[in-house]
UniProtKB/TrEMBL annotation:
<feature type="transmembrane region" description="Helical">
    <location>
        <begin position="99"/>
        <end position="118"/>
    </location>
</feature>
<comment type="similarity">
    <text>Belongs to the two pore domain potassium channel (TC 1.A.1.8) family.</text>
</comment>
<feature type="transmembrane region" description="Helical">
    <location>
        <begin position="234"/>
        <end position="256"/>
    </location>
</feature>
<dbReference type="GO" id="GO:0046872">
    <property type="term" value="F:metal ion binding"/>
</dbReference>
<dbReference type="GO" id="GO:0034702">
    <property type="term" value="C:monoatomic ion channel complex"/>
</dbReference>
<feature type="domain" description="Potassium channel">
    <location>
        <begin position="96"/>
        <end position="151"/>
    </location>
</feature>
<keyword id="KW-0472">Membrane</keyword>
<dbReference type="GO" id="GO:0022841">
    <property type="term" value="F:potassium ion leak channel activity"/>
</dbReference>
<dbReference type="InterPro" id="IPR003280">
    <property type="entry name" value="2pore_dom_K_chnl"/>
</dbReference>
<keyword id="KW-0406">Ion transport</keyword>
<keyword id="KW-0851">Voltage-gated channel</keyword>
<keyword id="KW-1133">Transmembrane helix</keyword>
<keyword id="KW-1003">Cell membrane</keyword>
<dbReference type="GO" id="GO:0015271">
    <property type="term" value="F:outward rectifier potassium channel activity"/>
</dbReference>
<keyword id="KW-0633">Potassium transport</keyword>
<keyword id="KW-0479">Metal-binding</keyword>
<dbReference type="InterPro" id="IPR005410">
    <property type="entry name" value="2pore_dom_K_chnl_THIK"/>
</dbReference>
Length: 410
């Protein structure tokens, strides 16, 4: 059955560009949805708090200064000084840039959390932050990527253990002469086989790894929220909110841990706070990257549904048909230029058999061999060039996940 070209192929919008355009549109719609949701949830509370703040400020001005102009001026100066001290951090008795505080500040810089509770105030400090951040953020991204690789490897070994255990159990049932169906790869995988080679080439499903990461992240954030709720005396929902903002490296700064005196040992709590923030940021980095693979699979499904295959001259600005296929990109090895086939057609349009072809034109054997050699060399060069190309699926987290999950990400 003849297959037609889709709209994306005719418009030369291939997989990468189609995914980029689609995710851009979806993100824009998601931003609009977020604007609507937070406007509904927060706008009335903001207006109410601003009105209460103005009323309380006016009431206190009257009580303190009794409408005295000079007193009001000094009060405004005091309030401005207090606000400046709060922003700079010097209004608190707690040191911001002692050795422990500087270590905490350095961690917020390289992890891109940036709570904002401690900021450099000197010109040299700000210049040093730029240089320190460039090197530190680069190394921290590398650390996150290596953590992602190790964690995915650990989950792969765990899932492989259960998979091989299931295979061995089915082999034992087979040895008892019971009729069974041995599936090396179940519905989550592309192929099914019963060979040992297939077991060796087995790779975990991205959805199972995603479920494992989601479970681990949920356990970590719920445990950390319980710890912060007890130590910092926060409501549990506020502690959960702080954990997500910190682990996702958003870092609003409205809630910051270890900023007041606590009942537990200070040094122990500082170490525990550092450990929880580090593990949380690493786990959520892994979760977001694997989640992006799931979203990418959804985008691929949407693109296939949107890429209508038609053969109409009017629709999709149809270009001359140069290849047949279901994908958005021409298949590898397809020559875009039109070449005459070395196998001719009969006068009535029927294809000559190979025996008749060789008998009628012996010289075409040499041409066929040359064509095969050229095609093989071209395929080898194309493969080598593809391996040397830099793409989103070969660098960074996507490259790590592509190596772990194989063709499932294609």
């Amino acid at each position: 059955m003849e297959q037609f070209l889709g709209c994306f192929a005719r418009l030369h919008i291939y997989e990468e560009n189609a995914r980029f355009v689609l995710i851009s549109v979806l993100l824009l719609l998601y931003l609009c949805l977020g604007a609507f949701i937070f406007h509904i949830l927060e706008r009335d509370a903001e207006i109410k708090e601003r009105r209460e703040f103005k009323d309380d400020s006016e009431r206190l001005r009257i009580l303190v200064c009794n409408r005295s102009t000079s007193c009001l001026e000094r009060l405004e100066e005091l309030l401005a000084l207090h606000a400046q001290g709060t922003v700079s951090g010097v209004g608190s008795d707690r040191d911001r840039f002692d050795l422990a505080g500087s270590f905490f500040f350095s961690g917020t810089v390289i992890s891109t959390i940036g709570f904002g509770t401690a900021t450099p105030r000197t010109i040299l400090g700000r210049a040093a932050t730029i240089g320190y951040g460039v090197v530190g953020c680069t190394c921290c991204v590398l650390f996150f990527n290596l953590f992602l690789e190790r964690l995915i490897t650990a989950f792969s070994y765990l899932l492989r253990y259960f998979h091989e255990k299931k295979v061995r159990r089915r082999l034992m049932l087979a040895s008892n002469n019971k009729p069974i169906t041995l599936l090396v790869n179940n519905e989550d995988y592309a192929e099914s086989a019963s060979s040992c080679e297939a077991v060796d080439n087995w790779r975990p499903s991205v959805y199972k790894v995603f479920f494992c990461l989601l479970t681990l992240s949920a356990l970590l954030i719920s445990t950390a929220a319980f710890v912060y709720s007890c130590v910092e005396d926060w409501p549990y929902i506020d502690a959960l909110y702080f954990c997500f903002i910190s682990f996702a490296t958003i870092g609003f700064g409205d809630y910051v841990s270890n900023q007041k005196d606590v009942s537990v040992n200070k040094d122990v709590y500082r170490f525990l706070n550092f450990l929880l923030l580090t593990l949380g940021a690493c786990c959520f980095y892994c979760l977001f990257n694997v989640s992006s693979i799931v979203v990418r699979q959804l985008l691929n499904w949407m693109i296939k549904k949107m890429d209508i295959k038609i053969d109409d001259d009017f629709l999709c600005f149809k270009k001359p048909k140069r290849y047949m296929g279901l994908g958005l990109r021409p298949p590898k090895g397809w020559e875009m230029c039109s070449e005459r086939s070395s196998i001719d057609l009969q006068a009535d349009g029927g294809l000559l058999s190979l025996k008749e072809f060789l008998m009628n034109n012996h010289s075409s054997v040499v041409m066929l061999q040359k064509h095969l050699i050229k095609s093989a060399l071209k395929n080898a060069r194309d493969k080598e060039e593809d391996e040397q190309k830099i793409s989103a699926s070969r660098v960074g987290p996507m490259g790590i996940l592509s190596q772990a999950f194989g063709e499932e990400l294609q």
